[in-house]
Write a sequence for this structure.
């Protein structure tokens, strides 16, 4: 899956950082301060922004939007601000932390149904390529593709972790009445804070 070249990916990452910096420093912040320079991103893709402490790579915030309901130039700014200041698992990012924060932008493909049976869900899922989401009543959960790679999970472990994230019993992904989807991402990440941006390649050997 390929949406953008590395130059455009770098633009998105730098715009995410600018959104966070300006939100902290400017009492009159509005989204147009950043999005006005991104008007050529008129695609509609889901966007997630992930923040990590550097150099430990400890998660510091991750929020985004599954569906491309708006243009990327709007969604990117919203996701960056939400990841930095609205993730309920963490206190908001402070300006003291910015130089120790890595920024990653995930551009999401359309959602594809994983099927109804446990067997089809395991068969249709490819670790390292696919992120997954689950919906059941008021319960929602999502895991990006990198989670399976970074934590060296099997398919079943990945699916169990998704249920845990959604607040459901671990093996609830086996139930036919839950909605489950897979998606791919193109990932752009800083090598170090304010450093070069790379197009992350998740095609590694991991457990089947």
């Amino acid at each position: 899956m390929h949406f953008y070249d590395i130059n455009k990916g770098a633009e998105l990452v730098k715009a995410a950082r600018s959104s966070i910096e300006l939100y902290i420093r400017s009492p009159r912040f509005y989204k147009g301060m950043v999005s006005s320079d991104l008007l050529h991103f008129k695609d509609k893709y889901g966007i997630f922004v992930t923040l990590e402490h550097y150099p430990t790579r400890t998660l510091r915030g991750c929020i985004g939007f599954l569906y491309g309901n708006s243009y990327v130039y709007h969604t990117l700014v919203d996701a960056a601000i939400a990841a930095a200041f609205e993730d309920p698992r963490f206190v908001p990012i402070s300006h003291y932390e910015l130089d120790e924060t890595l920024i990653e932008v995930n551009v999401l493909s359309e959602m594809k149904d994983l099927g109804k049976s446990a067997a089809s869900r395991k068969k249709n899922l490819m670790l390292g390529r696919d992120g997954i989401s689950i919906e059941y009543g008021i319960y929602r959960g999502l895991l990006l593709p990198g989670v399976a790679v970074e934590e060296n999970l099997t398919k079943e472990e990945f699916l169990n972790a998704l249920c845990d994230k959604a607040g459901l019993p671990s093996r609830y992904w086996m139930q036919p009445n839950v909605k489950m989807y897979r998606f791919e991402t193109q990932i752009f990440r800083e090598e170090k804070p304010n450093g070069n941006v790379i197009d992350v390649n998740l095609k590694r050997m991991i457990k089947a």
